[in-house]
Automatic annotation (TrEMBL):
<dbReference type="InterPro" id="IPR014729">
    <property type="entry name" value="Rossmann-like_a/b/a_fold"/>
</dbReference>
<keyword id="KW-0030">Aminoacyl-tRNA synthetase</keyword>
<dbReference type="Pfam" id="PF09334">
    <property type="entry name" value="tRNA-synt_1g"/>
</dbReference>
<dbReference type="InterPro" id="IPR033911">
    <property type="entry name" value="MetRS_core"/>
</dbReference>
<keyword id="KW-0436">Ligase</keyword>
<dbReference type="GO" id="GO:0004825">
    <property type="term" value="F:methionine-tRNA ligase activity"/>
</dbReference>
<keyword id="KW-0963">Cytoplasm</keyword>
<dbReference type="GO" id="GO:0017101">
    <property type="term" value="C:aminoacyl-tRNA synthetase multienzyme complex"/>
</dbReference>
<keyword id="KW-0067">ATP-binding</keyword>
<feature type="domain" description="Methionyl/Leucyl tRNA synthetase">
    <location>
        <begin position="34"/>
        <end position="311"/>
    </location>
</feature>
<dbReference type="GO" id="GO:0005829">
    <property type="term" value="C:cytosol"/>
</dbReference>
<protein>
    <recommendedName>
        <fullName>Methionine--tRNA ligase, cytoplasmic</fullName>
        <ecNumber>6.1.1.10</ecNumber>
    </recommendedName>
</protein>
<dbReference type="InterPro" id="IPR001412">
    <property type="entry name" value="aa-tRNA-synth_I_CS"/>
</dbReference>
<dbReference type="InterPro" id="IPR029038">
    <property type="entry name" value="MetRS_Zn"/>
</dbReference>
<dbReference type="InterPro" id="IPR023458">
    <property type="entry name" value="Met-tRNA_ligase_1"/>
</dbReference>
<comment type="similarity">
    <text>Belongs to the class-I aminoacyl-tRNA synthetase family.</text>
</comment>
<keyword id="KW-0648">Protein biosynthesis</keyword>
């Protein structure tokens, strides 16, 4: 308190000069380098105050604090644009998925500018960098034996002549009987769902009743990673600052045992799968979207790996 009072009495002229980072902002040897990302907002809606408070505002406040501390700070974000929600929105508005993304990316960017959110860069996930980085990560997983093929039973709408990705299906939750459950998760009880488990399923496009048909997909072999993940979590829980909710959800997944998780979808709108036999499919957005943090940084600077592959910093 005494030090703060003395600093206040001496005035602003004795404060260290604000750090002016180079453009683009890159890590600087000997400085504290801070990379900040907001959760990528999904592109199929107009952001409202709750969206901004929920993720963007807290990161913006922290970025401003870091800059006031003269820490070398990079703050990036962007719109998450692939997946079934974009396709369904495109159907609703009579536009192509790309037109939907272009429309809502511009709306998002304008709103964040109006709020003076201090992004160093606001990008998007529908870029060549996203494709190349996501496919490279996929190839590395494939080469190291962390992927497996399997046949799954999937709902197909005979009227639309297409397999239905999880968000193209709605029905009654098999666990809590909520009547508006999605084909991937119930928003009432929170349980993950396989779309074929839904009771009274309906195609969201035509409201027809889909039928179950087999289709081949690729899975991330999460059980192979479980032992390493558990040891990492124990260390991270002991040294990190996890919220009680994050700890609870993570423990519940580990407690039940990790299962292989499908990373491909029978869609057109997404990052193409670069493997023979699966080239008519795209990556499931949960696999693809987190890579957007890397690709957005790569669109900001060619030296993006100095931020993302720099364990010494």
């Amino acid at each position: 308190i005494t030090a703060a009072a003395n600093a206040w009495a001496r005035g602003a002229e004795v404060l260290p000069k604000p750090w002016q980072p180079q453009k683009p902002v890159l890590p600087v040897e000997g400085m504290r380098n801070v990379l900040i990302t907001s959760a990528l907002p999904y592109v199929n809606n107009v952001p409202h105050l709750g969206n901004i408070i929920g993720c963007v505002l807290s990161a913006d406040t922290f970025a401003r604090y870091c800059r006031l501390r003269n820490w070398n700070t990079l703050y990036v974000c962007g719109t998450d644009e692939y997946g079934t929600a974009t396709e369904t929105k495109a159907v609703e508005e009579g536009l192509t998925p790309q037109e939907i993304c272009d429309k809502y990316n511009a709306i998002h960017a304008d709103i964040y500018r109006w709020f003076h959110i201090s992004f160093d860069y606001f990008g998007r996930t529908t870029t060549p960098h996203q494709t190349s980085i996501a496919q490279d990560i996929f190839q590395r997983l494939l080469a190291r034996g962390f992927l497996q093929e399997d046949t799954v039973e999937q709902l197909k709408c005979e009227d639309c002549q297409r397999f239905l990705a999880d968000r193209f299906v709605e029905g009654t939750c098999p666990f809590c009987s909520y009547e508006e459950a999605r084909g991937d998760q119930c928003d009432k009880c929170g349980k993950l769902i396989n779309a074929v488990e839904l009771k009274n399923p309906q195609c969201k496009i035509c409201r027809g009743i889909p039928v179950v048909r087999p289709t081949r997909h690729l899975f991330l072999d999460l059980p192979k990673l479980e032992e390493r993940l558990e040891s990492w979590l124990e260390q991270s829980w002991a040294t990190g600052d996890w919220t009680p909710n994050a700890r609870y959800i993570t423990r519940s997944w580990i407690r039940d045992g990790l299962k292989p998780r499908c990373i491909t979808r029978d869609l057109k709108w997404g990052t193409p799968v670069p493997l023979d036999g699966f080239r008519d499919k795209v990556f499931y957005v949960w696999f693809d979207a987190p890579i957007g943090y890397l690709s957005i940084t790569a669109n900001y600077t060619e030296q993006w790996e100095r931020w993302w592959k720099n364990p010494q910093q």
